Amino acid sequence: MRFSRVCLATAALAVMLGLAAVAAAADNPFKMPPPFKSAIINYSYSGNQQGQSTVYFKGDTRAEHKKVVTKILGFGSEDNSIIITEPQRVTTVDLGKNEAYYTGNYITYLAQEYDKLSPAEKKRVKKNAEQMGGNFLAAMGGSKPQVSQGTFLNHPVEIVKVMGLTSYTWKGKGVVLKQEGGIMGMQMNLTATQVRTGVPIPADKLAPPPGIKPVFNQEADNQQRQMAKQVMDMLKDPDFGKKQSQAMQDASRQAKEAQAQQHAAQQQAGKSAPASGQPQDGSQSQSGDMVQEGLNAAKKLLNW
Fold first, then answer.
1. Low complexity compositional bias: what residue ranges (predicted)?
2. Is 88 a domain residue?
């Protein structure tokens, strides 16, 4: 389903750009201090996503309460959830189903794997992470991010434009205050409407609702541990550059073959002409192909 591809593409892009940020970090880049002692940030969503969310920060605990409906090409989904992130545990509450599960924290698993590396391996990881982020953007048809400085809601922000998306991230906090733009024809706008710092945080906002008891998801936790190990094994590999280049080439070839097969099937069915209301230049399809190339390369590198 195209809806799932859009969500996966967005998530994968965030992961790859996050890995690229490792190169600029010192010590263990996965051990980050809390951005606030306490804070409450309200957000609104627009575009293909409609709704609101509120994020509560208290020490090293972050709780996002979200109610958002996403619609694209007739498909839709509702996200009515609470995600509570702590250093050792991440709890996901599905308010629609009145159920919850928890796992360990993937970022903590990455930090643990990073601590196992030798100084030489850590240096190699930072170098390869920077290269990986740049190559992933290239595979998805992107270019070097445009970075500028500004303010939003009277807070200093770093403004990054890349692949049709613009984000405004609070400097020194690592908290996104605004995001606008689209990918694969999906418009995704997120805007902080109110920011309050140094305020009391109600205890019930940092825990599942009464009556919902989280269950440990062993399978998901195992997958996160395995993924953290795979990422570090990949990035510390001296032959990482060669393997990534080959993965990108294979993904590009597979995407072109799939595109050719799809085109041939359309001609065979007499549907080579674009449907009414669809783009005539095929730009949306090309964008999807480039995103798929990047995703295929990431999957191959990480053995997904």
1. 257-269, 276-289
2. yes
